[in-house]
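Bench notes, afternoon.
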Amino acid sequence: MPGENLSRDEARERAALLSVDGYEVVLDLRSAVDGAEPAEGPRTFRSVTTIRFRAAAGATTFADLIAPSVNAVTLNGTELDTAAVFDGSRIALEALAAENVLVVDANCAYSRTGEGMHRFVDPEDGEVYLYTQYEPADARRVYANFEQPDLKAPYRFEVTAPEGWQVWSNGVEESREGLTRRFAETAPISTYITCVVAGPYHYVTDTYTRGDLTIPLGAMCRKGLAKHFDADDVFLVTKQGFDFFHEHFDYPYPFGKYDQAFVPEYNLGAMENPGMVTFREEYIFRGKVTRASYERRCNTILHEMAHMWFGDLVTMKWWDDLWLKESFADFMGSFSQVEATRFDQAWVTFANNRKAWAYRADQLPSTHPITADIRDLEDAKLNFDGITYAKGAAVLKQLVAYVGREAFLEGARRYFKAHAYGNTTLDDLLSVLGEVSGRDMAKWSRAWLQTAGVNALTPVVTHDAGGRITELAVVQEGDELRPHRVAVGLYRIEDGALVRFARAETDVAGARTVVAELAGQERPDLVLVNDEDLTYCKIRFDERSLSTLRSHLGGLTDPLARALCWSALWNLTRDGLMPARDFVSLVLAHAGRETDVGVLQQLHAQALSAVSHYAAAEWREQGGRVLSAVALQELRMAEPGSESQLTWARFFAASAATEGDFQLLLGLMDGSARIDGLDVDQELRWDFLLPLATHGAVDEAALAAELTRDDTASGKRHQVRCLAARPSAAVKDQAWAAVVESDALSNALVEATISGSQQSSQRGLLAPYVGRYFEAIERVWADRSIQIGMHVVKGMYPSLQDSQSTVDATDAWLAAHESAPPALRRLVLESRDDLARALRAQACDAAAAAATA
């Protein structure tokens, strides 16, 4: 990635020199379908950009463009020497006037990595589909610009596309002449949220109205997915979201139309381009899925809609304040779900799923404050992480508890009105929140936004001879002892159920806080600190509470409290404080009673991870057999046709460990075996085929036959994953060559190959790649796009070679490559930390087993 980085200092210097009045971007995309792939170099399209901007007279700066070639560069009517001013990523601009016009005529490359103008050829019908994805800085792969968020401007797009195609951009289509469409000028927005989608998409329309406001709605997907596209549900959630945000933000949606495109080979969940939101097409479900899948899609739709205000209308000046959009959108996604949609238990999912992402990120060596120190674009790319999203959202939930719901929303309303179409920093938001709440927001910010790390809160209970609480204190641990608004719940066993009988809400501060309101209550069976999940912390338990959970966790009646306990137990396991086999035993004993299918799916994933990474090596095989046996038992007991049955079926496939398991999976696929109510649709067939391929129970011919049955883009990804999973040294070498030594695969197939090749049962086959990994990663990072570099560096790290020698090899590479790009070093450091954590957990598990032997 040479020459493509941009530092914060460079961005600040450029912002001080110039302001942008507008862009006119003209794209000719007919080459997307014309002719065969070029013999040399990438397939390209013509991009002509006119930028009108003001500058300090005589100033020198640069415009951004990543393109194979430039045909002409004209500045204020003078044609410049392209060889002299363009270096492959920047266009040098000298002797600027007070008012300037820059025209850049370039040949830009279509992408296969999901960055810039991505080109996808549908294997089902040969149709070509295009879409753009830019965050944080890939608009420069499509048109010349000043690529930083604080140089906002209005845009006009003109796109010429092949016959029969449809084209969309941020603005509405204003006119059409032959194959050329012209789109209305946008409001001032940042480069990274401009967008073009083009191709023979299936398109459905609707309208949202509220009073005098009318918003045209659209939703689109590939033609091959049209039969699966439940656009009515997408529109339902969209309208519910608009109702919620208009009611609470008091600022009408500012960008005209609202299209939502579900696109192939997408690197992200979605992207908040105003007027033209893009989503990964996996949100269109080809088979039966659980309510949790619809809940995730709903959350993503609302998350992106929240960005129309937090991020698009008001944008951070630089990526240091990425949280100003992502944390708010993540919080608002769940907040609006609970209050405006059928998914009124979204805080349960947030507590059990999203916060698990935050807890992991906040304990890595790369942890950072929510307001991060982002030196350059590579830093920015890596900071789309669990801290910026999930921890930030959890902290905002804490803020709502701290300042009050209405003060929080009033602060947001004033923030939008004061800074509409502008750029902000942390201080801009804090000032308005302090104004409406009367709280010391600077102190709150120092504790929550400007320091890293997660606190642990542990209850300490003393009682008298009569069994009454004499004192209940909350002990706080962590490098930064923060103020927490928490609820402390007391639970007791009643007729086999675990129910709350008392609760107190209080402010926790410092190392020890006494909850005076609970003195005199009967001694509880369970004390749940952070009941209702008001703050961001790791929950710990006293011994009595932990003993109660071992026997009665499944009987905890409140679903959010149950999710919080599961989350706490998983943190104990990851921290090496609970043996992995104990966590697995808890899952096997109580997961069958879990009513929230999203929590159940998370427990299944965590149980598999506990066996694969955190259990002592000598217990892994036995642990795997125990998982598959109980999974099959629960599958057979589940209500026919239920979500629970489908969830246990997938878990059984993922944990399949014996010849009998494999034969049953094959029988369910060919119809010779049957479980009442279980519909083995195409997606479930692929779920079954992955473990069968991993254990050598199906061969390449069987996988080819399955692709013939499902000759689609989704089918191809599944087949590639299964092919890479086969237990063969030659297969692993092919996978390595495909993703490390070649750039022929698209981003989606790189990801599928990596995930397929890394199977926990194949540690021996993967052992030879430790040395090769450390020899290759610096070259990969230098030669490939940052997205592919991240896939390879993270995905191919030898985490399954879980021994001190792998840690030592990692340390040796880090010591020898102190000058390697910081983003690359961060990825390696994070992987090393995960491995070291696994080794500590394995030692805990082995010690517990030895103690009971």
